[in-house]
Design goal:
This protein has 214 residues and is of the alpha/beta class. It has two domains: 157 residues, 3-Layer(aba) Sandwich (Ribosomal Protein L4, Chain: A), CATH 3.40.1370.10; 51 residues, no CATH class. It has a six-stranded mixed beta sheet with strand order 2-1-3-6-4-5. A hairpin with a 5-residue loop joins strand 1 and strand 2. Helix 2 packs across helix 3 and helix 4 packs across helix 5.
C-alpha cells in the first residue's frame, strides 16, 4: 500500500510503500480484545493483602474455659468469625500476568495498525523535529489536523529523538513511544497514529519477519 508522507506543516512531500501484510492485513477484533486483556492483566498491581489468623495482632489465649459457661467453645479471638479476626481465603499479593503466544501478539499488532490505516487515522511524517517544547509539538499536531488538547494522538519515533520525547511528555491526552514499545493497547487507546518514515519501516521490518515465519 502507498501512503502520503507529510512534513510537520501538514504538506505532502512524497509517498511511502508499506507492506500490505502489516498495514493492510485483516482485522481480527477478538484478537485485539485478547491482547488488550493480556496487557492490562500484566500491569495489574495485585497487591491486595488480608491477614491470616497468625498475622492478626492480639493475644491467642483461649477466650474462656471449654465447659460450663453456656457459650460455644472458642480457642482464640483471632478466628475469622470474630470481628477483627483473620481471613481464610482473602487475597494475598500475586501476579495476574499470563503467557500469550508471540505469534498472536504480532498478529494483533498488525491488526491494530491495519485498523488505523483503514480508518485513515495513520499519518506518516518525513521526520518530526522538535525543540523539546510541548507547545511546538502541539502546534505541529494541529497543523496535521489533530488539534490539541482534545485529540488523542500516539506519536512513534526513534528513541534517539530525545527532544520529541521530552516535548510530548506534557501533552494532555497524547503520548510518545519508541518503535520498540509500540503495542496494541496504546494504538487502540489513541484515535490517531503518527509515525515517522524511519519508525514505520522499523515496525514493518519487525512484523514482516514474524509474518514470514507463520
Amino acid at each position: 500500500m502507498k501512503l502520503d508522507v507529510k512534513n510537520t506543516d501538514g504538506k505532502s512531500v512524497g509517498q511511502i510503500d508499506l507492506a500490505d501484510d502489516v498495514f493492510a492485513a485483516p482485522v481480527h477484533e477478538h484478537l485485539l480484545w485478547e491482547t488488550v486483556k493480556w496487557q492490562l492483566a500484566k500491569r495489574r498491581a495485585g497487591n491486595a493483602s488480608t491477614k491470616r489468623i497468625g498475622e492478626v495482632r492480639g493475644s491467642s489465649i483461649k477466650a474462656w474455659k471449654q465447659k460450663g459457661t453456656g457459650r460455644a467453645r472458642q480457642g482464640s479471638r483471632k478466628g475469622p468469625h470474630w470481628v477483627g479476626g483473620g481471613s481464610v481465603f482473602g487475597p494475598k499479593p500475586r501476579s495476574y500476568a499470563y503467557a500469550l503466544p508471540k505469534k498472536q501478539k504480532k498478529l494483533a499488532l498488525r491488526s491494530a495498525l491495519s485498523l488505523r490505516a483503514g480508518e485513515q487515522k495513520l499519518i506518516v511524517l518525513d521526520r518530526f523535529d522538535s525543540d523539546g517544547k510541548t507547545k511546538a509539538v502541539a502546534a505541529a499536531l494541529a497543523r496535521l489536523g489533530v488539534a490539541q488538547p482534545s485529540a488523542k494522538v500516539l506519536i512513534v519515533d526513534g528513541k534517539d529523538n530525545a527532544l520529541l520525547a521530552r516535548g510530548s511528555k506534557n501533552l494532555a491526552r497524547s503520548k510518545w513511544l519508541a518503535p520498540e514499545g509500540l503495542n496494541v493497547y496504546d494504538i487502540l487507546r489513541h484515535e490517531t497514529l503518527v509515525l515517522t518514515q524511519a519508525a514505520a519501516k522499523q515496525v514493518e521490518a519487525a512484523l514482516r519477519t514474524a509474518a514470514g515465519g507463520e
